[in-house]
Write a structure and sequence with these properties.
26% helix; alpha+beta; 3-stranded antiparallel sheet; Creatine Amidinohydrolase
């Protein structure tokens, strides 16, 4: 296992700016999320916005990925490829995942969106997933174990009748797209490495309505769906470990007060 990068103040500043742009991109994309729109159209708008701000969409060309964002609809857990064939309709839920490269630094965030009225179970799933992210963030404090993020998330999700995807995880980010550590969303208490000030990573729980397993489409090699085709939801923030707690670098709406 390679070392977890402790970021310098200069790197933290650069990563923070990229994270803010990623979050601003999600806000910008929201206006195009409505019934009748293709996910490819949303992706085109996202790419233009990122480029117009002097940045690069990190996903485009990454290991052959063809688009500037991931847009995951309904039963798609993650890595949904925007397409002209995917037309949003009433009752859909979707995750938009943005990663920007600004001046060489990475910012990564995702959020759920709904189209019109959604089912009660979809609404509950989204609420629980957002709270899972919040519980994970609350575990970020120097000298705490990374496993306690996943322990808190898994305990809550299971108590609410949902399951936690274990085949995909959060990750270190900032200098590279994917760095150490691996941030599991279902983990044993007090497991894994300890958090240190200057570490930056994503917490991005994927919570399924049904079984926790996933299956990746053989045709595109990217789109991961719930194994039973039931709904899935995800929220993601990039988080910095501070001297006394955390700063959520992708939080531009002041939902999380730095500690």
């Amino acid at each position: 296992m390679s070392e977890i990068i402790i970021k310098t103040p200069e790197q933290i500043d650069g990563i923070r700016k990229s994270c803010q742009l990623a979050a601003q991109t999600l806000d910008f994309a929201a206006q195009f999320v409505y019934a009748g729109v293709s996910t490819a159209f949303i992706d085109e708008k996202i790419e233009k916005f990122i480029v117009s701000h002097g940045a690069i969409p990190a996903t485009k060309g990454y290991n052959g990925y063809p688009k500037s964002s991931c847009i995951s609809l309904n039963e798609v857990v993650c890595h949904g490829i925007p397409s002209e064939r995917n037309i949003l309709k009433e009752g859909d839920i979707l995750n938009i995942d943005i990663t920007t490269i600004l001046n060489g630094y990475y910012g990564d965030t995702s959020r759920m969106f709904t189209i019109g009225s959604v089912t009660p179970v979809a609404e509950k799933l989204i609420d629980v997933t957002k709270h899972c992210l919040e519980l994970g963030i609350q575990q970020v404090i120097p000298e705490n174990y990374f496993g306690n993020i996943g322990f808190a998330i898994n305990r809550f999700a299971k108590a609410k009748g949902f399951s936690v995807v274990y085949e995909f995880c959060g990750h270190g980010v900032g200098v590279h797209f994917h760095e150490e550590p691996q941030v599991d969303h279902a983990a044993r208490r007090n497991s894994g490495p300890k958090m240190k000030p200057g570490m930056i990573f994503t917490i991005e729980p994927m919570i399924n309505q049904g079984k926790a397993g996933t299956k990746v489409d053989k045709l595109d090699g990217w789109t991961a769906r719930s194994v039973d085709n039931k709904l899935s939801a995800q929220f993601e923030h990039t988080v910095l470990v501070t001297q006394t707690g955390y700063e959520v670098l992708t939080d531009i709406h002041n939902e999380y007060r730095a500690t």
